[in-house]
Design brief:
With about 150 residues, the protein is mostly helical. The protein folds into 2 domains: about 5-55; about 60-125, no CATH class. It has helices at about 5-10, 25-55, 60-75, 80-90, 105-125, 135-149. The longest helix has about 30 residues, at about 25-55. It starts with a helix and ends with a helix.
Length: about 150
């Protein structure tokens, strides 16, 4: 085995050879530097991961602003598809959209309650109406419901 292999592998053929400190003082210093580098790289990756994970959450103020904008859009809409209404309802049930489940300032709490009060009736009242065109459409509806039973 060459000297460079001995310095960095530390008997890598054995199960725990890398984690055992070498006997030679020079190799021990190299081994210590390697462990410090590994620890700092792991800490840096973990820190970046935590930073990205915390930045991905919606703050209550932002969520309230989104609900207010959504309420404005729904007020001008003629109809809301039931799947869309269900998606919006599940979204506003998330904890970060509800100031009763997360900490909010008094001002955001009032705005959040007002946005929720505006959204609930809008989601219930804006259902699309199915228009039937005479006997043909009624016949198609009858046949489809009979096939489903």
């Amino acid at each position: 085995m060459t000297k460079s292999e001995q310095r960095y592998l530390c008997g890598a053929g054995y199960a725990r050879a890398v984690w055992r400190p070498p006997a030679d003082p020079e190799q021990r210093r190299e081994w210590g530097k390697w462990l410090k580098g590994l620890a700092s790289a792991t800490a840096a990756v973990a820190g970046i991961g935590l930073l990205l994970a915390s930045a991905g959450t919606t703050r209550p103020g932002e969520a309230t602003a989104q609900m207010e904008q959504l309420a404005n859009k729904l007020e001008h809409a003629k109809a809301v598809h039931p799947e869309t209404a269900q998606t919006i309802a599940s979204l506003i049930r998330q904890p970060w959209y509800d100031c009763t489940q997360v900490a909010c300032t008094a001002q955001v709490q009032i705005r959040n309650d007002a946005a929720r009060a505006r959204l609930k009736p809008l989601l219930l009242n804006r259902k699309p109406e199915i228009q039937t065109a005479g006997a043909e459409a009624q016949d198609v509806i009858r046949r489809t419901s009979a096939q489903q039973q």
